[in-house]
Amino acid sequence: MTYIPYNTDVGFLRIKQQYISIDHWRIAFFIHVYASIWVLLAGFTQFSKKLLRNRPKLHRFFGYIYVIDVLLITGPAGLLMGFYANGGLTSRIGFVALAVLWLFFTGMALIKAKQKDFKAHRRYMIRSYAMTLSALTLRAWKYAINNTMELPPMDVYRAVAWLGWVPNLIIAEWIGRTKIFWIERITGKGVK
After folding, report:
1. 138: number of Cβ within 10 Å
2. Pick the residue with more confidence: 14 or 52?
3. 179: nearest Cα among 171, 113, 46
4. pLDDT (tens digit, 9 = 90+) per residue, 146-169?
5. What average pLDDT does this structure show over 36-47?
6. End-to-end CA distance of the chain
7. Residue 40 φ then ψ, to 5°
8. What is the spatial distance between Cα 95 and Cα 93, in angstroms, rounded to a whole number?
9. Side-chain half-sphere of 82: how many Cα atoms within 13 Å?
10. 3-state SS of 72-120?
11. 53: how many CB neighbours lie within 10 A of its CB?
12. How far apart are CA 14 and CA 21, in angstroms?
């Protein structure tokens, strides 16, 4: 990993040198980078029907790791970082919107699970994890754009600030609605 050992002049941080001396930004960045690993892994487990059916306590355990990490650690760090995004207001709005939606969808997933509204819980978790996956899709879009077009770096950054999560959310909405629709059609009953 680029940032191990602690290094402030590699990768993404090369374009963030104007912020690296700001303690709260630097702390938020490293928290976001390291804690996001747990979010990606714990979130991935939440979509295993086998785990949910055979080990519901383990499903809940990983779910709580995911929720606590997003709501208390990674999400707030990402939100703070969004206010310092390169590329001006367009990028800042994109990244702040991503962080706010990520926090909102995750919080709602938890609330719906507590209320035992598992249909809504699934939909919110799909949305939340779509926001989590923006870390990967942002990089994929950046790679695709840089290898197919010649755009100034800040234009690419402005584009991926939105492309990293908007298509994910559209796909998540489609998956949530389609999957639940077909489950209800096949079984003849609503999803709990």
Report:
1. 22
2. 52
3. 171
4. 999 999 888 998 999 999 999 999
5. 88
6. 41
7. -60, -45
8. 6
9. 20
10. HHHHHHHHHHHCCCCCHHHHHHHHHHHHHHHHHHHHHHHHHHHCCCHHH
11. 9
12. 13
Contacts 24+ apart (CB under 8 A), 94-97: 94/158, 94/161, 94/162, 94/164, 94/165, 95/161
How far apart CA 117 and CA 123 sit, in angstroms, is: 10
Among 5-14, 43-52, 69-78, 124-133, which stretch is predicted with the lowest mean pLDDT? Answer: 5-14
Single out the residue of 119, 100, 96, 99 nearest to residue 109, CA to CA: 119
Whether 5 has a pLDDT exceeding 80, the answer reads no
> Residue 49 and residue 51: Cα distance in Å, rounded?
5
DSSP string across the chain: -TTSS--SSSGGGGGGTTTTT-HHHHHHHHHHHHHHHHHHHHHHHTT-HHHHHH-HHHHHHHHHHHHHIIIIIIHHHHHHHHTT-SSHHHHHHHHHHHHHHHHHHHHHHHHHHHTT-HHHHHHHHHHHHHHHTHHHHHHHHHHHHHHH----HHHHHHHHHHHTTHHHHHHHHHHHHHHHHHHHHHHSS---
* Token output for 74: 């990674």
Cβ-count burial of 161 within 10 angstroms (0-12 exposed, 13-18 middle, 19+ buried)? buried
Task: Indicate the residue type of 17.
Answer: Q
Taking the C-alpha atoms of residue 21 and residue 150, their distance in angstroms, rounded to an integer, is: 31
